[in-house]
Design a protein that fits this description.
324 residues; alpha+beta; 5-stranded antiparallel β-sheet; two-stranded antiparallel sheet; 15 helices; 7 strands
Length: 324
């Protein structure tokens, strides 16, 4: 059974600071800053239609409470210090620029991290520009996290890309390869065959629909302390500790939002800190206990240190539910 004919997408919009010209803002970093590394956590694969990393800029298309917005972020000196220049287009441009400092990590405090292992001390020293970003938007990080449940990254990235381009809209601004994700209502209206074509099984699509149907309550979690925010997200059937943590790391920028239930992270942490190769979640949490309040930052620094256990099993096979 085939779906309805493809609905033409709206034309490229250039709303912004009048006559298609962007609104601009300059943010001065309080110290060393790594724009691409910090904002790169928002990109879901190399072909994410909502986030592009070029040689000189980070492009981000987002759906704000005020409407779609596109940001172009470039590193530039500001009064002799590292800084970021932002250009914004679209109905949500003002909203996005008002929250630019939080997005870039201004609320984060890297000095609060106290290393207890030589590897982390070295990583902390070598990456002083690392800051944990905060988007203030829950659904845009939650949905791709749901799509990443129990599948390969390649499968999840493909599903996200196809669904956004099919049911979202072109982002405002000068680029024609940027898209804004669907509205919460539009997520609930994606037909079953479209999920199937995107390689998303019923369990994950149902979770997305349930979450989108409660978008207002979920967005409130962006202003909650971590325990309450984790609890709020996990009230939705299909959202567990892994998905909730992966979401709040981005929407809330919480330095303690440690991911549990991950296939690789416990082994990476265990191998990096002790040389052990078969550490589970309980062992990881025990190793990270000295970093209470900063456990997510600790895992980011471990990843940057680049120590990974040798692979002892084949990669998780890429599935394709479209053949079923």
């Amino acid at each position: 059974m085939s779906g309805p004919p493809r609905v033409p997408r709206p034309p490229l919009r250039t709303a912004g600071g009048g006559s298609g010209r962007p609104l601009t803002r300059l943010w001065r970093a309080p110290g060393p800053y790594a724009l691409r590394r910090n904002l790169g956590v928002l990109r879901r694969g190399p072909y994410d239609p909502t986030c592009r990393l070029t040689e000189d800029a980070v492009w981000r298309a987002t759906r704000t409470p005020a409407g779609p917005a596109t940001l172009r972020l470039t590193e530039t000196p500001a009064a002799g210090s590292p800084g970021v220049r932002a250009e914004a287009w679209g109905p949500g441009a003002d909203w996005a620029l008002d929250r630019l400092p939080a997005l870039l990590g201004a609320d984060d405090d890297p000095a609060a991290f106290v290393p207890h292992h030589a590897l982390l001390a070295e990583a902390h020293r070598r990456h002083p520009g690392l800051r944990l970003i905060r988007t203030g938007l829950v659904l845009e990080s939650l949905i791709p996290a749901v799509l990443e449940q129990k599948v390969t990254a390649e499968e999840a990235y493909r599903g996200w890309r196809l669904l956004v381009r099919r049911h979202g809209e072109r982002a405002p601004g000068p680029r024609d390869d940027l898209w804004v994700m669907p509205t919460a209502r539009d997520w609930t209206r994606v037909p079953s065959w479209e999920w199937h074509r995107a390689g998303v099984d019923r369990k994950r699509s149902d979770t997305v629909v349930r979450a989108a149907g409660r978008a207002g309550r979920l967005e409130e979690a962006a202003a909650m302390p971590l325990p309450e925010a984790l609890h709020r997200l996990q009230l939705i059937q299909g959202i567990g500790p892994w998905t909730a943590a992966e979401t709040l790391q981005r929407s809330n920028g919480d330095p303690d939002a440690i991911t549990v239930g991950d296939l690789h992270l416990p082994r990476t942490v265990g191998y990096s800190l002790t040389g052990a190769r078969n550490v589970d979640d309980a062992g990881m949490l025990e190793l990270l206990a000295p970093y209470a309040g900063q456990r997510h930052r600790a895992t980011r620094l471990i990843a940057l240190a680049g120590a990974h256990p040798p692979r002892r099993q084949p990669r998780f096979p890429v599935g394709d539910i479209r053949r079923l």
